[in-house]
Structure formats: C-alpha cells, structure tokens
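seq:
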Amino acid sequence: MTYGPKPKPLLERFEALYMPEPNSGCWLWLGSDHWHGYGYFQLPGRITVRAHRAAMMLYRGFDLRSPLQVLHRCDVPCCVNPDHLFLGTNADNRADMVNKKRQTRGEAHPRAKLTAATVKRIFSDPLPSRAAGVKYGVSHTTIKDIRKQKIWRHVTNEF
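struct:
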C-alpha cells in the first residue's frame, strides 16, 4: 500500500524544472545545480545525472551508459534544450572548447605556478633546466617544455 500523492511521470517532472528563454531559445534549468552551473536531475532509483544528459535521454533516446558526452552548442551550462545539445567524445568537447576560446590558460588557470612575466624570464635565463626549475619552483620538465614552446605557447620569448 502506498501513501501520499501519485508520483508525476518523469518527463512531466523534468519539464517543471526549466524555463524557456525566448531570446536565445535556451531552456534554463531551475532545479538543483552544480557550482559550474550545470543542472542535476534525479531519476527513479535515486540516480542523479546532469540535467542536459537527462534532456538527451528524455527527448532523443540517449543511453546514459554511453561513453559519449553531451555538449552545448549555446555554451550555456544550465541549458537543457535538446536542440542546443549534441553528442561527442571527450576530444570533441576539448576541441569545441579550444575553438570557442573558452579554455583557461596561463596564469588564469587555477593551478598555475607561473606568470607570463616569469615565463618570459625563463626564456632568457641561462641556467640549465634543473637549476631553473629550482629557481622558479617548477620541474625541469616544465622549464624544458616552456623553452621548446610546448606549453605557455601564448607567451612569446620576445621582450
């Protein structure tokens, strides 16, 4: 015997948690969200998934066990409009981020130990990589990679 109101169908429950934005066409998630702005939705069995993945499951038949990621054309993390979403690999997601210039790089990256000014000094520092690594507080590999312009490529060695 069950008590209380009958649970709403899944799609009806999902649709009560977003609001269409008329200018962009985005469906803005109003339910629970993550600090990065992505929404969360609870499926039966107390399974929690990102809301945009749930949207693809409900509207496009996407299998949540798929290794594919759900990417945003509109770049609005809380958007759950399936017309703004597409499937891709992790490589597709990273390429999309780079093409749209949305990646953090250099000193804007939260784990950066160096600044652009320090990287410029590394280019002209005559110390060997190991000694320079100690001096600047990074590994000798980081120093080599900077000097070969494998990393920090956006900083030139010209003053």
